[in-house]
Amino acid sequence: MVRLSPPIKWAVRLVVIGYVFLLVGWPLITLVQKAFAGGLDNFQAAFSDPDVTHALLVTIEISIWAVIINTVFGVTMAVLLVRHEFPGRRAVSALIDLPMSVSPVVIGLALLLVYSGRYGWFGPTLEAHGIVVIFNSPGMIMATCFVALPLVVREVVPVLEEVGDDQEQAARSLGANAIQVLRRITMPAIKWAVVYGVVLSLARSLGEFGALKIVSGNLTGLTQTAPLVVEQKYNNFAQGEAYAVSFILVAISVLCILVVSLLRPKESHS
Amino acid sequence: MSIEIRDVNKRFGDFVALEDINVSLPTGQLTALLGPSGGGKSTLLRIIAGLERADAGTVRIEGVDATRMSPQRRNVGFVFQHYAVFKHMTVAKNVAFGLEIRRRSKAEVRERVDELLKLVHLSQFADRLPSQLSGGQRQRMALARALAVQPKVLLLDEPFGALDAKVRKELREWLRRLHDEMPVTTVFVTHDQEEAMEVADEIVVINDGRIEQVGAPDTLYDAPANDFVMGFLGEVTQLGDVRLRPHDIEISRAPDLAGSVSADVLRLTRVGFEVRLVAGTEDGREVSVVTTRAHARSLDLGEGDPVWLTPSTGATTVPALTPLLVG
Predict the structure, then answer these.
(1) What is the pLDDT of residue A138?
(2) Which of A6, A162, B69, B170 sits at 20 to 30 Å (Cα–Cα) from B233?
(3) Is B59 in a helix, a strand, or coil?
(4) Helices B135-148, A166-173: crossing angle, 10 deg rounding
(5) If you average pLDDT over residues B207-230, what whole number do you get?
(6) What does the alpha-carbon distance between residue B289 and residue A262 come to, in Å, rounded to a whole number?
(7) Which residue in B101, B104, B149, B157 has the most chain A C-beta atoms within 10 A of its own C-beta, making it the best mutation to test that interface?
């Protein structure tokens, strides 16, 4: 710990609190104020529009699928990266971080190039077999999975590294097969990391905008998601409804984080 | 013979961990794999357990070729240096793990766990988590867990290495007693020669990926095959043309014994009941000598005194071929 004299300590605290307040706190407070400006009017207006409720349902559906897929693959990839040596391991590890640094719009465009039914190089084949990816749920789930890809892996990898493989080896020498080791030893050890990864993925999936705008085609009442509805309402001078939907999205994310921090055991097991 | 190892080789990249290892470990005995760190003894143990695979050679356990068998099918108990406890399970659940994997009935599991916890004196801790136990208790729990599945062989990798000196001494005496009560073929790795000498029926000395000598503790101590074994099993010093143990040198104040070498006491340290001294001979060498406190007092030894040093009768000696640094 760096020891600071009291005045400097207070100054540093003020700067940090001020920074967070100006960047996150104030805008969010204003948003909440605007959402509830006319009591529940904005919410009533929003929910009376079937396109809004549909968009919220689409967002939830896409997010749940993306989180499930992302969790299964995330845990598998984390185990592979930490416990196994294979050619190209470092390349895979680097690729997993890519969605963090690439704009979601670019990701959307890239998916379009491959899976579009009209000019994608893989899309027409799929459509010939009755699978429509672009402007449809599969493409939207793929885009969401892509942007949320690192969130589970990056939560689980450090925990797996810290736990080490002693317990797994002990379990194997006691007669456990690979699945039993995973279920009885590895999963309980990484449980909380997975929960965090899921929550972060969920929050990220609910809020995804750029990639989904391109891949979904933004078809009102069909493939439009909640963040897209926020943009549309805002542009169509229905700001009140835009604020109301925004508040719902924020509230779900905050709720997720709150529930996890309440569920989490107080002392992290040594 | 319970474990037969034939022509085993193992490399990690360019590093040769084991080279042409051939050894047979007898049934029902307590064997120590002894050697310096990085000498390959843990690798050999892990190859026996199936946690590591040999590049070449075969491993037979109780007559069955286990070379390509996965660890879960070998039926060996393995105890790790850092316990490898299942942190999220209670002590009883840890011990029950192997039995539950084998789908034994609930009643049988409970009975066997009770029995084992009694054996390792942890009955009152059955419902605690491992994090609430001391290091020694965790290792006893790990041992009970390994014994629960009635393994054909029990393998321990530096089992007491992470414990403090007092607990270590208690546990190794306890392991010896346990083995006498329940003679499972046991192999343990250690770099502590005292531990090996005290606990094992037989010692395999491993250095630089090769076996230096195999034998009973007394045989190794009294008739070391080479310089390395002699040096590793105890302190060695050089007197004249021979190398011998410091306590095998007799000190007198007059040259009344044949073949005695004159020297001056340079340093004198008392450690408990023994006195360790370093004497300088006329050819400029330093010789370590260990004697009892009573003997040192009867000679009235002090720093700077002239003494005469003689190898005692029956001392283990090897000819000095290379100059030796006093250890």
Answers:
(1) 92
(2) B170
(3) strand
(4) 30
(5) 91
(6) 67
(7) B101
* pLDDT recorded at residue A242: 94
pLDDT confidence bin for A266, thresholds 50/70/90: low
Q: Is residue A48 part of a domain?
A: yes
Amino acid at site B80: F
HSE, CB side, 13 Å, CA atoms: give it for residue B287.
33
Q: Is the ipTM of this complex over 0.85?
A: no
Looking at the complex, report in whole angstroms how far the Cα of residue B322 sits from the nearest Cα belonging to chain A.
43
Domain assignment of residue A19, yes or no? no
Instruction: Read off φ and ψ for residue B280, nearest 5 degrees.
Output: -100, 125
CA dihedral A79, A199, A185, B38 (to 10 degrees): 50
Query: What pLDDT is attached to residue A141?
Result: 95
Closest to A43 measured CA to CA, from A220, A247, A206, A225: A247
Place of tokens 């190089």: A121
Q: How many domains does chain A have?
A: 1
What residue numbers bound the domain in which A131 lies?
30-263
Please give the C-alpha separations between residue A134 and each of A110, B82, B192, B246, in angstroms, as whole numbers.
Answer: 11, 53, 67, 84
Q: Cite the beta strand spans of A20-113 per DSSP E.
A: none
Is A173 within a domain?
A: yes
In the block, residue with structure tokens 């009643």? B107
**A3 interfacial to chain B (CB closer than 8 Å):** no
**Which residue of B84, B87, B102 is in closest CB contact with A175?**
B102
Please indicate whether residue B144 or residue B235 has the higher confidence score (pLDDT): B144
pLDDT value at B311 more than 60: yes
Identify which of A166, A172, A177 has the shortest CB distance to residue B80: A166
Average of pLDDT values for B304-319? 86
CATH code, A97: 1.10.3720.10
Asked if the Cβ–Cβ distance from B88 to A188 is below 8 Å, we say yes
Top-confidence residue, A253 or B214: B214
- Kindly state whether residue A69 falls inside one of the protein's structural domains: yes
Residue A200, C-beta contacts closer than 8 angstroms, at least 6 positions apart: A148, A151, A152, A155
Q: Distance, in angstroms, between A175 CA and closest chain B CA?
A: 4
DSSP conformational letter for B125: G
Using one digit for the tens of pLDDT, what is the confidence trace for B90-114? Answer: 999 999 999 999 999 999 999 999 9
pTM, two decimals, is 0.78
Chain centroid to Cα B209, Å, comes to 16
